[in-house]
Amino acid sequence: MKKNTAVLLIHCPDQKGIVRAVTDFLYLNNGNIVYLDQHTDRSCGQFFMRIAWEIDAFQISREKIGEYFDTLIGKKFEMVWKLSFSDQKKRMAIFVTKLSHCLYDILYRFHSKEWNMEIPMIISNHENLKPLADQFGIPFYHFPITKETKAAQEEKQLKLLKENNIDLIVLARYMQIVSGNFISHYPFKIINIHHSFLPAFIGSKPYHAAHKRGVKIIGATSHYVTEDLDAGPIIEQGITHVTHKEDVADFVRQGKDIEKIVLSKGISKDLEHKILVYNNRTVVFD
Amino acid sequence: MKKNTAVLLIHCPDQKGIVRAVTDFLYLNNGNIVYLDQHTDRSCGQFFMRIAWEIDAFQISREKIGEYFDTLIGKKFEMVWKLSFSDQKKRMAIFVTKLSHCLYDILYRFHSKEWNMEIPMIISNHENLKPLADQFGIPFYHFPITKETKAAQEEKQLKLLKENNIDLIVLARYMQIVSGNFISHYPFKIINIHHSFLPAFIGSKPYHAAHKRGVKIIGATSHYVTEDLDAGPIIEQGITHVTHKEDVADFVRQGKDIEKIVLSKGISKDLEHKILVYNNRTVVFD
Amino acid sequence: MKKNTAVLLIHCPDQKGIVRAVTDFLYLNNGNIVYLDQHTDRSCGQFFMRIAWEIDAFQISREKIGEYFDTLIGKKFEMVWKLSFSDQKKRMAIFVTKLSHCLYDILYRFHSKEWNMEIPMIISNHENLKPLADQFGIPFYHFPITKETKAAQEEKQLKLLKENNIDLIVLARYMQIVSGNFISHYPFKIINIHHSFLPAFIGSKPYHAAHKRGVKIIGATSHYVTEDLDAGPIIEQGITHVTHKEDVADFVRQGKDIEKIVLSKGISKDLEHKILVYNNRTVVFD
Amino acid sequence: MKKNTAVLLIHCPDQKGIVRAVTDFLYLNNGNIVYLDQHTDRSCGQFFMRIAWEIDAFQISREKIGEYFDTLIGKKFEMVWKLSFSDQKKRMAIFVTKLSHCLYDILYRFHSKEWNMEIPMIISNHENLKPLADQFGIPFYHFPITKETKAAQEEKQLKLLKENNIDLIVLARYMQIVSGNFISHYPFKIINIHHSFLPAFIGSKPYHAAHKRGVKIIGATSHYVTEDLDAGPIIEQGITHVTHKEDVADFVRQGKDIEKIVLSKGISKDLEHKILVYNNRTVVFD
Predict the structure, then answer these.
(1) Which of A33, A50, A51, A243 to mutate to test the interface with D (most CBs of D within 10 A)?
(2) Total structural domains in chain B?
(3) Which of A111, B283, C105, D253 could covalently link to B276 via disulfide, CB atoms 3.0 to 4.6 Å apart?
(4) Residues in chain C within 8 Å Cβ distance of B23
(5) From the CA of C102, how many Å to the nearest CA of chain A?
(6) Do A264 and A169 share a structural domain?
(7) Contact A100/C111, CB-based, under 8 Å?
């Protein structure tokens, strides 16, 4: 059986001695490292690190690790850090509209226990996918959205999300633009799938635009949602080659296969605490 | 040994009976079809076809095929068509600046006889690649370009190209924007390689822009040059996956491997008479 | 709305006049061609063709098309041909064991009506996936298999399949080798997904073998089942790049994403009457 | 300008404290780490690490680093390690036969200074590529090989290689099997390109075999040469998708584009001291 591990995601200004200080801290307190990767971005002088270690024999109690780490190491190196534990289950809300391909892919991973998480709710602006939610026994909430009701409906959604202690929101082909206010409650905690290889074809109907431009590849991008439409930090991208023989409907059909994989890969990375965001770009550890 | 073939590239408004009429024409005149592919673009109602046949036993003489085809078939279906022969060598001029990766790739294919063509000249706005041209015995012409001299230099280039009966111009990382006037002399006969997956990152320094945006794929695009910068009909695109570990220099280095292959594939398709252009998009037969 | 079409898949020894004869037949009987692709394999002198046309205004009645075509064209050219109609729904049986990723992907396409077919049954040698079948309202039949019972169980399966007029059998990670006798009832009508890029890693535990060999790519292959294990005609293959960081469990997890897409693409091609088999190889029209 | 760096490639049985010990050693002696990556293979309990640091201000002199490291760290952890310096140029011999695509690609990278190395010689069993070697001013040695002369010719080749202090041998489509004796002089220092996605299609004529099998992807593999034919540690693999329309000649032509890139990527990794070999598998750092 897999042992419980703690995971630290760290970034700070680069300087000598960071790796040594962190590994020293773990070594001296009997932490067996099971993952260590680091990266220095020379263009911005920032150091990034992910380190995981077994906590069963660790001398510092789980509750105290954060405090000790910050006092002994974090403050000294001006670190921004985040501590997680492998046995914590993230609670994920899925937003959908009418298309089901991404939702199926997520439900498969949830049910086959590929992912260590919970799905307390599916939220939608339409009722089309309610039967699927019912079938899998997941509460389904219908929030129809019009220009007039949008602000009020988002407030209700936020209340529901907070009450359910949601950690991660996934927009699985949710055909609504979420407001800046909504996003501000979940900074870098909302993952969207956009059906183009960003930054090409931002906004609506990217497959139509791609077909019109006569591209020979189409793609999809999973990214964290920020206030700028389709401009948040990219997590994962995938593509497929197309020819003149494919029309827009073919793009849509083939694109679905890319979208669902690219979205699920992005979610996986987040669930495994493998993503750091800095300057609107991601560091995605493998 | 491969037999001589004639190749027809055709497009016209779609209607019943086109394939039958063309294949009838060949059959009745003893032409053995070695290639036939067709495509109907329903969004614009246009029919596209490429057909090749052995001409040794063909009853219509090579010089008369065009006239007969147009009279008997072309006019009736309002066809735009182009006739070529497999034993005609295209004459290609290569424009370069300082980077050699695409030029090497082209020279390799030329020298190993992968391509049935001639390279009467290499043109550059710098002298850096003259030694390489010399080494391969290809005439090298140096046309330094400034804002002031550009128009005059392009006139000289055009004169040289016309004198040498150039059929195809390849911009192999030529770091100059060619003018609309220049392009008008070689409509859909100038192939450029752009170092991004268009339409993302049009213009200069696409790898810098890609890095800044934090993309997880980079790419390259070969396309015919039109007056709109980097907006001409796309022939071929390729990509490679990147991570946060790659900086701009890595993008540039890895990008070169994609650029040269994507450019050479685009050139191949043109040399083999496999490309039709319609509405700023290409039909690329395989 | 899409019009009803007839589809002909043809192969025969190559000779002059085939395309002309077929297109003549359609033209003269008022058939509007909506798809035509052909291919000649020069290594075996065989001609392959797929042609589809609208049948609403076709002069020969649906029931008579086959007879007329064979009499007027097929016999003359020694054609092997197969006629299908776009409004016929194939009836597909899915064989599974314990893994659900391929089954989910198939169910998604079925339920979202991406595929024009019916799934009268899921058959399994284990009961694990019965709840999923129940959830989607698809009859589930449990046929436990041991060395001793295999022949008898296969007989029962065959009986069930015949009674239900099954046209296509999909082995969606079915962990049993089906017998030659069983296969002989469904020649080129059983599609399997093998979890390697064949012909590498035939047989069981291909991901273990791939990891041991230290490959840098893993893949999956969908193919028609023949008596030779994992040696039937390949329909579709996909791969993903891996590094030394991935262990066997990672291969398995990543492989699932390839397997399901590669299997579903293979099924799509079959459902759309786009595959011809000759000499243990496929011609897959696009 | 890039500073001089030292690179350590290390592997040893996994245990607590390795990263800390190595980073301590560098920190205490004023070494600024510019690269650190590590990997533990749990299937064999082996720890792998690559670490690079600037040596200008390092307190231990370049000549003494190895000794000090081994005494203070290496012996304690039973490390197998290799120390290199970024300013050392590897000396590479290229073996070719008649095909030039890989040779061109290597010469391009050499001449454009993408690689920090020297090419003191090209060796061939045929004279076809001598003009290309001459053109680039690289000594060309012709060693015709027959069954009878092979052993003697290899002795002469070895003498020549030793006299020229060759560090790395690249078989750039060299159509001869080198003997076990020859290989024993350059363990994991001979890189070969095989024109298939190994382990499929070992031995000669892999494209013919791939075509016969009807695969939908073809590929290439760069690997270190060991006594077992095409079974040495894989460094890099690449593929491209093919269809029934491609014949063997098309496979060969398209394969060349993959081969040259896959070989050059493999060479790059070796030149940058990024490869460790263990149990016939590679760890390739990025």
Answers:
(1) A33
(2) 2
(3) B283
(4) 19-20, 23
(5) 10
(6) yes
(7) yes
Listed in sequence order, the residues at least 6 apart from C218 whose beta carbon sits closer than 8 Å to its beta carbon are: C196, C197, C207, C210, C239, C240, C242, C251, C254, C255, C258
pLDDT of residue A1 exceeding 60:
no
Residues of B in contact with C37 (CB under 8 A): 37-38
Q: What does the mean pLDDT of chain A come to?
A: 96
- Domain containing B258 equals 90-284
- Quick one: closest CA in B to C47, which residue? B34
pTM, 2 dp: 0.97
- The answer on D107 and D171 residing in a single domain is yes
* CATH code, domain with B24: 3.30.70.260
Q: Of the residues B20, B55, B85, which one is the last residue of a structural domain?
A: B85
What DSSP string describes C227-255?
SSTT-SPEEEEEEEE--TT--HHHHHHHH
**Residue C228 among the catalytic residues:** no
What mean pLDDT comes out for the span A245-270?
97
Predicted ipTM beyond 0.90:
yes
Please list, in sequence order, all residues whose beta carbon lies within 8 angstroms of the beta carbon of residue D73, skipping any fewer than 6 positions away: D21, D22, D25, D79
Tracing tokens 């990152």 back to the chain, one arrives at B201
Smallest Cα distance from C184 to chain A, Å? 33
| B148 and B70 co-located in one domain | no
Tell whether the model's pLDDT for residue B107 goes beyond 60. yes
Last residue of one domain, picked from the residues D56, D85, D114 = D85
My answer on whether C67 and C170 are in the same domain is no
- Residue range D84-109, pLDDT digits in tens: 999 999 999 999 999 999 999 999 99
CA A42/CA A60 separation, integer angstroms: 34
Task: Name the residue of chain A whose CA is nearest to C244's CA.
Answer: A286
CA A15 to mean position of chain CA atoms: 29
Q: How far is D244 from chain C (nearest CA, A)?
A: 5
Residues of D with CB under 8 A from a CB of A: 16-17, 19-20, 23-24, 26-27, 32-34, 36-38, 40, 241
Asked if residue C106 and residue C74 are part of one domain, the reply reads no
User: What is the predicted pLDDT for the residue at D3?
Assistant: 82
Same domain, D169 and D250: yes
pLDDT of residue C3: 82
The pLDDT score that the predictor gives to residue A3 is 82
CATH of the domain at B141: 3.40.50.170
Q: Give the C-alpha separation, C192 to C222, whole Å.
A: 6
